[in-house]
């Protein structure tokens, strides 16, 4: 049986004559292509135990069988489709959706129309907003009255609402309020001690700097005084020296 074996480039093809009982495992496959698979033009990957007689043409049994040696390619981990979908999502999200600069059929900008609609909605909701603000102000006044000790019964008996100026502040001040926040007291005491320590350290440092400056000034004054004394003594020694003898007297003595 004639077998035409095709290798990948640059290897040359090979033509063999093998018996029909031989299998694909009997074909000479180079060691460099041990990870390859065998296929024909009309089939996919073939197992190596396939006999050559199964690959012969039914209409022409003597026709040579062409077998392709195809090397396998190392695959990756995949995920290419998800990357494409993510890129498409980013591209679609980057589109500009602000159409305020566009105009309608009458020539008005869409941004102007939207602003007019917002103004109309605001005018329609103005009474509700005012009522809400009035309710909030009323709740605030009621909370202030409760805090100052003004209840609704006293207000109704007085024939109207009591003003905060009518409350006896001295009576409220006489009420005893016990402060029992130990953590706050401890933190306050610690803060006071830290402040005292910092002030004491600053005063001590200032005192040391002042003493050092005074010592340096005193040493400088003493050095100046010693130098002036030396100059004065040198002048006195120079004045106390006897004057030199005249030249004429020395000549007469020699004669």
Automatic annotation (TrEMBL):
<dbReference type="InterPro" id="IPR051421">
    <property type="entry name" value="RNA_Proc_DNA_Dmg_Regulator"/>
</dbReference>
<feature type="compositionally biased region" description="Basic and acidic residues">
    <location>
        <begin position="215"/>
        <end position="236"/>
    </location>
</feature>
<keyword id="KW-0508">mRNA splicing</keyword>
<dbReference type="GO" id="GO:0006397">
    <property type="term" value="P:mRNA processing"/>
</dbReference>
<keyword id="KW-0507">mRNA processing</keyword>
<dbReference type="GO" id="GO:0005737">
    <property type="term" value="C:cytoplasm"/>
</dbReference>
<protein>
    <recommendedName>
        <fullName>SDE2-like domain-containing protein</fullName>
    </recommendedName>
</protein>
<dbReference type="InterPro" id="IPR053822">
    <property type="entry name" value="SDE2-like_dom"/>
</dbReference>
<dbReference type="GO" id="GO:0005634">
    <property type="term" value="C:nucleus"/>
</dbReference>
<dbReference type="Pfam" id="PF22782">
    <property type="entry name" value="SDE2"/>
</dbReference>
<keyword id="KW-0539">Nucleus</keyword>
<keyword id="KW-0131">Cell cycle</keyword>
<feature type="domain" description="SDE2-like">
    <location>
        <begin position="75"/>
        <end position="200"/>
    </location>
</feature>
<dbReference type="GO" id="GO:0008380">
    <property type="term" value="P:RNA splicing"/>
</dbReference>
<feature type="region of interest" description="Disordered">
    <location>
        <begin position="212"/>
        <end position="255"/>
    </location>
</feature>
<keyword id="KW-0963">Cytoplasm</keyword>
<comment type="similarity">
    <text>Belongs to the SDE2 family.</text>
</comment>
């Amino acid at each position: 049986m004639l077998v035409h074996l095709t290798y990948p480039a640059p290897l040359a093809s090979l033509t063999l004559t093998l018996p029909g009982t031989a299998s694909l495992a009997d074909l000479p496959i180079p060691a460099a292509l041990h990870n390859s698979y065998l296929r024909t033009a009309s089939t996919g990957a073939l197992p190596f135990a396939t006999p050559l007689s199964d690959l012969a043409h039914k209409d022409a049994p003597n026709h040579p069988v062409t077998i392709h040696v195809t090397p396998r390619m190392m695959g990756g981990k995949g995920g290419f489709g998800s990357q494409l979908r993510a890129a498409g999502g980013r591209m679609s999200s980057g589109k500009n959706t602000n159409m305020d600069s566009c105009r309608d059929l009458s020539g008005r900008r869409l941004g102007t129309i939207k602003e007019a609609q917002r103004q109309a909605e605001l005018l329609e909701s103005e009474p509700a907003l005012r009522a809400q603000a009035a309710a909030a102000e009323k709740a605030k006044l009621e909370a202030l009255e409760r805090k100052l000790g003004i209840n609704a019964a006293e207000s109704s008996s007085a024939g109207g609402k009591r003003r905060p100026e009518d409350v006896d502040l001295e009576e409220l001040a006489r009420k005893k309020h016990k402060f029992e926040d130990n953590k706050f007291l401890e933190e306050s005491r610690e803060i006071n001690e830290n402040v005292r320590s910092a002030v004491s350290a600053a005063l001590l440092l200032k005192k040391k700097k002042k003493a050092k400056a005074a010592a340096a000034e005193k040493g400088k004054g003493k050095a100046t005084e010693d130098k002036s004394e030396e100059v004065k003594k040198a002048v006195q020694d120079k004045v106390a020296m006897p004057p030199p003898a005249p030249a004429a007297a020395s000549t007469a003595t020699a004669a």
